[in-house]
Write a structure and sequence with these properties.
alpha+beta, 4 helices, 7 strands, 28% helix
């Protein structure tokens, strides 16, 4: 009985290299990785007339995007979703499904009656008045706000965002987050 196992093992030992040799000679040559364009863009799935792009903190500490749909556009609100509405959604925090995916926020929530005011964009710059204090916010919170506002105002996120808090503190910067990237925004006083 021991001999039978030994023969089966030897046969399997010989069969594996033979199969590899046969498969390797089937005429299919190895190829290298072929570049086929840049990284996928979340903008391909975003309809600015009724979608909002929100930036939340991912489990690794970076930022992740979430697309929220407001429903179909109505005749009285033609054009992109207002930035005030987008920032209010960000300050409402991640939803249950976002939290289940590990997304969190570094921002405080809005209180009842608190409103966000956005001055119209001019000269590549938008100013947003927030009903929260900016001074205690960390870099992640500032990045969440800056990127959410930048992409709400400009499809490519290429706009300077000035944040003004209720505590009199102001910060300005750009998102510096390209689709598929995790760069930090430039922020200043």
């Amino acid at each position: 009985m021991r001999r039978a196992r030994g023969r089966r093992g030897a046969a399997a030992f010989v069969a594996v290299p033979a199969a590899v040799a046969l498969l390797g000679g089937c005429g299919i040559q190895e190829t290298d990785v072929i570049e086929a364009g840049g990284p996928a863009s979340f903008q391909a799935f975003l309809d600015r007339d009724y979608d909002m792009l929100l930036f939340f903190r991912s489990p690794d500490g970076g930022l992740s995007t979430v697309i929220r749909t407001t429903g179909s556009p109505s005749a009285d609100t033609a054009g992109p979703v207002p930035t005030e509405k987008v920032v209010s959604a960000l300050l409402a925090g991640p939803r249950e499904e976002d939290r289940a995916a590990g997304l969190t926020t570094a921002l405080p929530t809005l209180g009842r009656g608190d409103t966000v005011k956005v001055e119209p964009a001019a000269n590549g710059r938008v100013t947003t008045h927030l009903p929260i204090a900016l001074k205690p916010l960390d870099d992640t919170a500032l990045r969440q706000l800056t990127c959410t506002i930048a992409y709400s105002q400009d499809a490519d996120g290429q706009i300077v965002v000035e944040l003004r808090g209720q505590d009199g503190t102001s910060r300005s910067g750009t998102c510096q987050l390209a689709p598929g990237g995790t760069s930090l925004p430039e922020t200043g006083d």
